[in-house]
Amino acid sequence: MTGPVAPSTGRTRPTVGARVLRALRRWPGRLSGPGLAGALLLFGVSLGPALVPRAALYQGAVAGVCAAIGYGLGVLLAWVVRRVGVPWSRRGSRWFRRALLGATVVVVPAALVWNATWQDELLELFGEPPADSSHPVVVLGLALVLAVLLLQVGRGLRRIARGVAWLLGKVVGRWVPAPVARLVAVALVAWLAVVVVDGTVVRGGLAALGAISAAADGGTADGVEQPTDPLRSGSDASLARWDELGLQGRSFVAGGRPLDQRQRVADLTGRELVDPIRVYAGLGAGQDLEEVAQVVVAELDRTHAWDRSVLAVVTATGTGWIDPSMSDSLELLWGGDTAIASMQYSYLPSWVSFVGDRSTPPAAGKALFEAVYARWSQLPEDDRPLLYVAGISLGSYGSQGAFSSVQDVVARTDGALWVGTPGFTPLWREVTEGRDAGSPEIAPVVDQGVTVRSANRPASGADRQLWTLGDDWSRPRVVYDQHASDGVVWWSPRLILERPDWLAEPRGTDVLPSTRWVPLVTFWQTTIDLFVAGQAPAGHGHNYHLEYADGWAAIAPPDGWDAADTAVLRDVVALRKSEA
């Protein structure tokens, strides 16, 4: 037998799906109206002009972070308004939300169209065809997901802070006022969040990236083969083993331009072609940076590099990469009568070191230069090669770490070529901030260009900043090459609250006039530019393919070299290695 049946109430229990939908419908109503207004404002602004075109995923990330920041600022402003006693009725709140909904319908599509428009304008400025699509749906979808995720994280931290404040009130409420307890709770939760993020997320992420990068470092790029020339590290005659050079080291020692391209430039000066020397040591060549550097010096001894006309100490980027155009341009310029020395100091990509390890690159740059300089200094002054230093990006930062000042560079080298230098580099910052009055940040003039000069535009010959100050400048020479559209150069935490000179002064030739500084937003836009600047066309962003020809010709020209020769060199550098 069955028991008595409970009387029906006439209601059915809603399904899980129905309850979720109901919660989703109610969720927007629980959001702060001023917070949503702030999110909409910064979302729209974040889609405005930047330094380089960016893919939809990167643009969506910028917009999502900015929307979350805008929401937080809107909530903070509303709290301040309430605290000062400004009246705000429910009716006013309803009308505000209706107006906000109308604004959203207008602002979101307009901002997405604006984003597509300025990117096409920038591509035209770069000499590129317009993009097929800016993928507005992807941008909007990613921005919403990321903003909601960050909002929920913020709300979770706020609940934890409230719980801690309540607990403190129970324990020490008799002696500590409630406002003080809340302040302590917020500070404690913030500190714990930083500890967790830094100790778990950041350090764990770096460890994982290090393991992945170390595994990838054991590979060899397509088309790269072990050199047979004894003048190259990694050959059978080398003290540096091929399998210990690392992925980028193997590409460097196996690289170089074909004979016909080298001959074309050599014909300008009548120099006899010789095979260039390239020496390199991988991270595993020693127990520390000093030992790795000593392997490089031993390779210079083995290859008789001290008999060459030019020796360049090039600091690599994070993974050990050396821009092929940098080394190729110098070897073409001198007909191969060169030696280039470098070494690996990390497995991590440059952007990881850029964020999490700024001590190793300058330590490596210093270790390598000091080791080479000590051996070079032992040679007779009239019987040793010209000594140059160079680097791009994190390599430029590391290379400059070997010197205390420009005077130190001049005293111990025959010149320096530093390209795409990160803005946090102390020596670069000293030069830039000490520039002559009236010269712009993007192309600073120091002491009327007598020793240090800058170039900030795509390679275009005589109208570049290197030459507009005249051909008569002293030696040694220091050249900084930096595009106005290179976010690696202009990124700085100061962008959060301070308008930089490069946006307060006249824009660079490859920066849109509509580009403006917006607190917080410009910082996040430029942060994303760190990841995409290298994808810009040659001559823009962080792509310095042709600029090496002008740079090396400025600081290390052979006897009789002139501007017409530089034009030929630039044409040859522009060729692919397979082209005649």
Automatic annotation (TrEMBL):
Record field: transmembrane: 31-51, 57-79, 99-117, 137-154, 175-197
All copies of domain Alpha/beta-hydrolase catalytic, residue ranges: 277-567
Highest taxon of source: Bacteria
Keywords: Membrane, Transmembrane, Transmembrane helix
Pfam families registered for this protein in UniProt: Abhydrolase_9, Abhydrolase_9_N
Keyword Transmembrane helix included in the entry's annotation: yes
Protein name (database record): Uncharacterized conserved protein UCP007542
